[in-house]
């Protein structure tokens, strides 16, 4: 066995023995609700761990259907972090079976982002050509009907690259692949919102947070990125910076996965300085530091909470902030997982499960009938774009709109 | 800063959060898991494991005559909540009814969802199990049921749902399958076939596992009723029971839609007191510790079974606020703005570590009334 045999693992979590087999994780698992083909978190997590402890390592192919959404973790009444176990089972499976070329590509969102945005106009058009998509399905196993996010030639790093902040409060922004290559408008909105609050934003050296790698069993590479990011960001936090992120998956990686997988003092230290962007704004508000000069917006919005937001245990900061805008109405959809689940929904053999969850979400969105849907996660947005007719906005875009209106911009 | 902070996401936690939100309060709910609601039967009993009625219940929980109106309002409030959630509850607390469980035992319950029908005294019942689902064994149930209801004629059968599963199939999985019309039709035609084979013409009641649909349970129930021409009941057994999952979903969705802020995967590990008041709780989520401030704190941690109380070799520990409790688990010096509900009260556990659904409903309702009263009298500073 390689480096990730469960036999040799000294898990950060020591709570697995608390599992009572009550089934809450599997009962709440989105993929288990969509299909009986999945073994479920209870079996592939604590049960398999018990089976393997002090015995042979078991490679179970059913782990491929786990999306690492983390719903099992938030469901467990005994506080067992099941997704840590399933992430390692993915790594074991990958090591024994090898990484599919497709999964290697999907897992490397950053390389894909760099390449795709370098040839952005061509990439975006090509990804919409039916015969090419059919070919991609045949050769790569990427479903022909799955819509892709568009890539931007003028990606964020080309536009803004300050390395230091010279204001009293200092924020270092971990941009993430999505806001860098696909949605630079979100990153720009964040920087401007911070300016409205007299905070200059610095952009530390950074690599992909690793979430797509963990999800595709590329644990080694994911941990490499995690270590790199931890080292780079600690240089900032030790100078008094707060680390803020606009992608809920990146944020959860730093708060949960890094601490569970790296199991280092450094990862723990860093985790205490990590904030979701709305969580950060809410904290400014609590300390009477938030610029509340919001122009009224007569909007009826629906909020879709990404799984990786729910897993952070921070309440609902997006709604807390948006509700500060006068006349702004926002209703939580109270929905389950969107089914895109990062790279999961692109894969041909998983597309049906992804769309089953997506169609359920579409019904919920239709029932609420808002002007648009708000969500922080780029991948949830990708699914919402495909299954609903409503526009989808990142909270940063809305907050900026309100600030700019109020300053007549 | 919240008006009301609820700790726990079981029946009492969700109800307390909903009630507070209905009063337009700013409400946070802090929970490390989904609570024990999903592991329940979804039935609301008076004194669990007993046949005792309302009079004994009132006495056991130290209610006085004056409380009767509050209790009635609490029950009605719960019922109307479930009506709004399209999962109506039937029954009256004055008149508990016998229902059958998956083991064939007959127990008494005060409130029950529409998918459950009280067990009949005499006549012919058919217990239907599914080949794919090992948690429900009709033959096993038959023995116990005949002991409790000797006047019944009990037949058993097993039919196929027609689905293969990569995991042990549960009531919940079966319920999701039965949401599909074609699965129901397959099941019904097999039942009819078997009835014909055994020349059973008149059946009074069919007993199924707690699996008659999740989102489309009404269609499922109606479909079976019309096709089988008899009354139908679910017999709750090993979790997850569809009857409990539906209840939990209705309450959870209601709370989220009302705007309750859910702090999930979050464990309360202490608190801060000023004078006799609780000012904030410490919460650990993902190896990070943060503080949540509030005016009122509802403790819905479920007692020993829910993990809010821990029995050690020498005493009982309260795990969330980590304040001293007596040998029953009741606070020795309860902060004035802390409201333990249900089993978290410590002293009122009836049997097997639970208080029964009716007490959970009433104590959540009553805690909310206390908060309203304090607020009406000018808040905690005047309390």
Automatic annotation (TrEMBL), chain A:
InterPro entries, alphabetically? 4Fe4S_Fe-S-bd, 4Fe4S_Fe_S_CS, Cys_rich_dom, G3P_DH_GlpC_su, Helical_ferredxn
Q: Name one Pfam family in it.
A: CCG
What UniProt keywords are attached to this protein's entry? 4Fe-4S, Iron, Iron-sulfur, Metal-binding, Repeat
Every 4Fe-4S ferredoxin-type domain range? 8-39, 54-86
Note the PROSITE patterns from the entry.
4FE4S_FER_1, 4FE4S_FER_2
Q: Which GO terms describe its cellular component?
A: glycerol-3-phosphate dehydrogenase (FAD) complex; membrane
Q: Name one GO biological process term.
A: anaerobic respiration
**Source domain of life:** Bacteria
Which is one GO molecular function term here?
A: metal ion binding
Check the record and name the SUPFAM superfamilies matching this protein: alpha-helical ferredoxin
Q: Does the keyword Repeat apply?
A: yes
Name listed for the protein in its UniProt record: sn-glycerol-3-phosphate dehydrogenase subunit C
UniProtKB/TrEMBL annotation, chain B:
Pfam entry (one): FAD_binding_2
Molecular functions (GO terms): oxidoreductase activity
Q: State whether keyword Signal applies.
A: no
Answer whether the UniProt record assigns the keyword Membrane to this protein: no
Signal sequence coordinates: none
Q: What sections of the protein cross the membrane? A: none
Query: Residues in domain FAD-dependent oxidoreductase 2 FAD-binding?
Result: 3-329
Q: Which UniProt keywords apply?
A: Flavoprotein, Oxidoreductase
* Gene3D superfamilies (alphabetical): FAD/NAD(P)-binding domain
The protein here is known as FAD-dependent oxidoreductase 2 FAD-binding domain-containing protein
